[in-house]
Design brief:
The protein contains five helices and five strands; from the N terminus they run αββαβββααα. A hairpin with a 7-residue loop joins strand 4 and strand 5.
Length: 201
């Protein structure tokens, strides 16, 4: 009995475990430095996950090594898209590029993700030329706006399903965009399966 009491007492006297750190939800979803560079979205992996792709390329020729693309969007923009089928001002779409591995650990056949190889961001901001901008980050340092004309702008404008974003690759959102009739004319013309859906109400 005394031994059991001593065990309980010693447990009570142990220092309390530190409380888990609060997530970085208080950080601004989109912010810039004084000279107009975009600050790295440090907490983007706490945002809404949209999709992953493996070895995707918009070129007819494919590279030998396949990479994973993971896409996240800030919660504020996601909630707005669910309501309207379009992206609001201050939308931040993060493309995280990760290396792929084969035969990692006990895996014998598939591909698994490993280290981050790069982070690119697509931003809707009414203050930017064309209201959309691309930023490519080098580690976590603030990034300059990719200037127009760059291929990323013309490609997105010509092929994106909603506004200038590739919602056609976001399986949880493309159906919603069809329901809301917010698919772009360029996408409807390019995709025969979507041509039956009018882009306007």
């Amino acid at each position: 009995m005394l031994r059991s009491f001593a065990v309980v007492l010693s447990a009570l006297l142990l220092p309390a475990a530190p409380a888990p750190k609060a997530p970085l939800a208080g950080h601004a979803e989109l912010s810039y430095t004084a000279d107009g560079k975009m600050n790295f979205p440090e907490n983007y992996r706490e945002w809404i996950y949209l999709t992953s792709g493996l070895g995707m390329s918009y070129s007819a020729s494919a590279s030998g090594h396949q990479m994973f693309d993971n896409v996240f969007v800030n919660p504020t923009a996601y909630k707005s898209f669910l309501a309207t089928g379009t992206w609001p001002n201050k939308t931040v779409l993060v493309l995280e590029v990760r290396n792929s591995e084969t035969r990692a650990s006990i895996d014998q056949h598939g591909h698994s993700q490993s280290e981050v190889m790069g982070v690119e961001v697509h931003v809707r901001d009414e203050k930017l030329p064309g209201k959309w901008g691309f930023f490519e980050f080098d580690n976590h340092a603030p990034a300059k706006l990719t200037p127009r004309p760059a291929d990323c702008y013309s490609c997105h404008e010509a092929h994106a399903a909603v506004d200038t974003t590739f919602v056609q690759f976001y399986p949880t959102l493309i159906g919603l965009a069809k329901e809301k009739k917010t698919l772009s004319p360029a996408y409807l013309q390019e995709m025969p399966g979507a041509a039956r859906v009018s882009p306007t109400p």
